[in-house]
Amino acid sequence: MTNTDIQLDYRDDVAIIRLTRETKRNALSDGLILALRDAFEKMPPAIRAAVIDGEGPHFCAGLDLSELKERDAGQGMQHSRMWHAALELVQHGPVPVIAALHGAVVGGGLELASACHIRVADTTTFYALPEGSRGIFVGGGGSVRIPKLIGVPRMTDMMMTGRVYNAEEGERAGFAQYLVPQGSAFDKAFELAQRVAKNAALTNYALMHALSRIAEQPADQGYFTEALIAGIAQSAPEAKERVRDFLEGRAAKVAANV
Ligand code: 1HE
């Protein structure tokens, strides 16, 4: 499927969602946000993982500022809620999502990246939250998700001072789990997506839906939720088959990464 804002391809059991507004540095128009929402809402059942990538030298320049018209307070709130609904489908939707980052990952682009489960950044990547200097605030869930990656003090500093993190600093701070050579973020993200797609679907579901929620719970409730999910996951026929494969020597061992 192609519209003017995203290109959606399926390669085996991986969906590739590419932001295709290169001339606007993949700025997130309402149309693009709704196209993203549709892509996750209508994900075919055979798809087991997704990669989000951006066309051109930048992953995403954030909110399309040309659409920031004369909204009143209520409309502004509804607009933010529309982003929340779309990015909720990225984080707690049908499949694990891997972001392939390069160039600018700023404002709403960083909010989108932070809704993904794994972030792979190449060495051209830089992270910023220019909302502070534009007189606005994050509205795509960034105030909830970004502190979970880097902490409230770092986010406050970024928004107050306009601080930009480069790729190495961003990896150290916790934005990306992988830092790869220039131009290779998509290939690495796709390789990871293929690997993730081979997991038991119920395991991926539990990782996507339970981990973030357990992190919000008091410890006692977290342990209880963990026990429920552990019991459900273990009882699945696919889990029993995978464990049997290991015990009978048919499954790969864990190997040191040398
Ligand atoms: C845009 C946008 C945009 C570029 N909305 N049009 N985001 C920002 O404040 C970041 C604004 N963008 C930039 O700082 C730079 O464009 C970049 C560092 C991302 C890339 O720089 P560069 O030199 O490669 O490109 P450029 O020449 O700045 O941009 C190319 C065109 O894209 C240009 O338009 P043109 O008509 O002159 O060709 C830019 O105006 C346009 N463009 N970024 C609209 N963001 C849910 S709330 C989220 C709140 C936010 O995300 S606020 C942060 C917004």
TrEMBL record:
Keyword Lyase set for record: yes
Gene3D superfamilies: 2-enoyl-CoA Hydratase, Chain A, domain 1, Lyase 2-enoyl-coa Hydratase, Chain A, domain 2
Keywords assigned by UniProt, alphabetized: Lyase
Domain of life: Bacteria
Family under the similarity heading: Belongs to the enoyl-CoA hydratase/isomerase family.
Entry protein name: Crotonase/enoyl-CoA hydratase family protein
Naturally occurring in which organism (per UniProt): Variovorax humicola
